[in-house]
Structure formats: structure tokens, C-alpha cells
Specification:
Layout (H helix, E strand, L loop, with lengths): L6 H11 L3 E2 L6 E6 L2 H9 L7 E6 L7 E6 L1 H4 L7 H9 L10 E7 L7 E6 L11 E16 L3 H14 L24 H13 L7 H14 L5 H8 L3 H11 E4 L7 E4 L9 H18 L1
Parallel strand pairs: 1-7, 2-7
Antiparallel strand pairs: 3-4, 4-5, 5-7, 6-7, 8-9
């Protein structure tokens, strides 16, 4: 009988999946309590090993116990040192940076039909290969409750601010009463435009040259290349665009078909080269005459 995988592979798979679970606190009873967002935010920001509140339980015969929770003064105090953006994020996330209510009441409910537990996970040292993650059972949930604030002006102010800020857009248009002193203030002219203006001043204003002189420059340019676009000709002749077009219309043809669309070419009477068709006809006639003589 063949087996799937070697014993070494099975040991590796076992090391990856099997974990030791600490059950020392499995018999301990714990409460599962849902708290408002502003309380959980304050608890996360609180220093380690500090008192965050006190719980008072009063048992009533034939009824559910009365549970009151009082937050510490340090937790209830307003948050300082936050930017306007951080304050807005807290408000939009159903929290607040202002003072929060101190007195709360627990609404206790039963979990007879459920079995719940609390687990903890302690990660091992990544540099130590022998260290493994530690999983522990912290207790069995014996009571469920919801932490609700007593009716107070502080809680009403928190909810009012949350409803008001939720309807406001994140970006708003504001009228400036004074000049902007930051590095993002608008500029009258950008650096690229200023550089272009300096270049134009350095080159000077384009003046119209004599017509014959411009034509000579054009003829010299077309001896180098057969086709030109208007921008290259304007740069080479240093003439105003409108004046240059007038001269080009007299001595050049404007091509509107591929492969030389939007290009200028000398008219046939000004060209120093023969058209390709004419050259082919002359060669053909020369060949025919030579064959007749034979």
C-alpha cells in the first residue's frame, strides 16, 4: 500500500496546524459588554495599567441586577493636541474629542441558548524560530450586556454634533478674508510662462524682411528637403506666420493628402529636381531609342 507524502512532510504539516491551547482560565466567567464608540476610542488611547472606570452591581430580588458603570476623570476629559482633520474623523466615526459622559448603565441580557468564549493570541518572537504563537482561553461568557449612557446634556451634544457633521461635505468653498501666507498661494504668472516671455524678449520681435530675401531663404531650404511644415519654416526664416504664408502661397503648394499632409512643397516651376514620373518617361524613351538603333 502506498502512502501520500513522506513522514517528514507530515511532521511539517503537523507543526503548521497543531497549536497548544492554554485552558487554565477556561472555567473563569467573563462578561461580554458592548460599549459606545467614544468609550472604546478613549480606552485605546489610555495608558497601560491605569484605571478606566468602576463597576457597581446591585442585586434585586426577583429581578435582573442593576449595573452602573462610572468612567474615570482621565478618560472623560476632552482630547487635546488634535488637528481639525483628526477631530472631524472622530466625529464622523461616531466618536468625539470633547468631554464624554461619566455615568453609564448596563442593560443585562441572558445567553442561555449560546455558548461563547474569549480567546487571546500572543505572537511569538519572529527572530526566535523555536518560539511559537500562544493561544489561550481567557474565560467563558456568562453574561451579556450593553453599556448605555444616562440621559445627559453631554451625550445629547455628542449625537447632535455627529448628525450635523455627517451632513457636511468634506471639502467646502470658503471666501478668503486675507492674503494666503502658505507656500500654496496662487501666483500671478507661472515659471514656464515667464521663461517663454524672457525668450521672446531675447529673440526680439519678428520683423518682415524683403520678399525676395525670404524667397531666397526658402529656395535654399527646399534644396535640402522636399517637404517642410509651417513651424519649421517660420523658425528658419524668423518671419511672422501670416507674412510667411503669403509668400509660400506664391512659390509653394500645400499638400492635403498623405503621406505629406499639412506640408509645403515648391511648385514645379521652382524645383531644382525632376518629378519621378518625368524621369521614368525619359529613361523609357532613351531605352526605346537605343533598341531601335540596334
Amino acid at each position: 500500500m502506498s502512502s501520500n507524502g513522506t513522514p517528514k512532510d507530515k511532521d511539517k504539516a503537523k507543526n503548521k496546524t497543531d497549536r497548544d491551547l492554554d485552558l487554565a482560565n477556561s472555567v473563569r466567567g467573563v462578561w461580554l459588554v458592548k460599549v459606545p464608540k467614544y468609550i472604546s476610542d478613549r480606552w485605546e488611547k489610555a495608558a497601560a495599567n491605569t484605571e478606566v472606570g468602576k463597576l457597581r452591581i446591585r442585586k434585586v430580588n426577583g429581578a435582573k441586577p442593576e449595573v452602573n458603570f462610572t468612567l474615570s476623570d482621565a478618560v472623560c476629559a476632552p482630547l487635546a493636541g488634535l488637528s481639525e482633520g483628526d477631530k472631524m474623523d472622530l466625529v464622523r466615526n461616531s466618536s468625539t474629542y470633547q468631554q464624554i459622559p461619566k455615568e453609564h448603565k448596563f442593560r443585562v441580557s441572558s445567553i442561555a441558548a449560546q455558548t461563547l468564549g474569549v480567546f487571546s493570541h500572543a505572537a511569538g518572537d519572529p527572530e526566535d524560530t523555536a518560539a511559537v504563537d500562544k493561544l489561550s482561553v481567557e474565560g467563558k461568557v456568562v453574561q451579556r450586556a450593553e453599556c448605555c449612557p444616562n440621559n445627559s446634556s453631554l451625550y445629547s451634544a455628542i449625537k447632535k454634533e455627529a448628525l450635523t457633521k455627517a451632513g457636511e461635505p468634506k471639502r467646502m468653498v470658503k471666501q478668503l478674508d486675507k492674503h494666503v501666507t502658505t507656500s500654496f498661494k496662487p501666483v500671478a504668472n507661472h515659471a514656464a510662462n515667464l521663461a517663454h516671455e524672457r525668450q521672446k524678449k531675447a529673440e526680439g520681435k519678428k520683423m518682415r524682411d524683403d520678399k525676395d530675401k525670404v524667397q531666397e531663404i526658402l529656395f535654399a531650404l527646399f534644396e535640402k528637403h522636399q517637404f517642410y511644415n509651417i513651424k519649421d519654416l517660420a523658425q528658419e526664416t524668423r518671419q511672422p506666420m501670416a507674412y510667411l504664408k503669403q509668400i509660400l502661397k506664391e512659390v509653394c503648394n500645400y499638400s492635403v493628402k498623405p503621406p505629406h499632409r499639412n506640408m509645403w512643397e515648391l511648385k514645379p516651376e521652382y524645383r531644382h529636381y525632376k518629378p519621378e514620373g518625368e524621369e521614368d518617361e525619359k529613361k523609357k524613351a532613351r531605352n526605346e531609342s537605343s533598341s531601335d538603333s540596334d
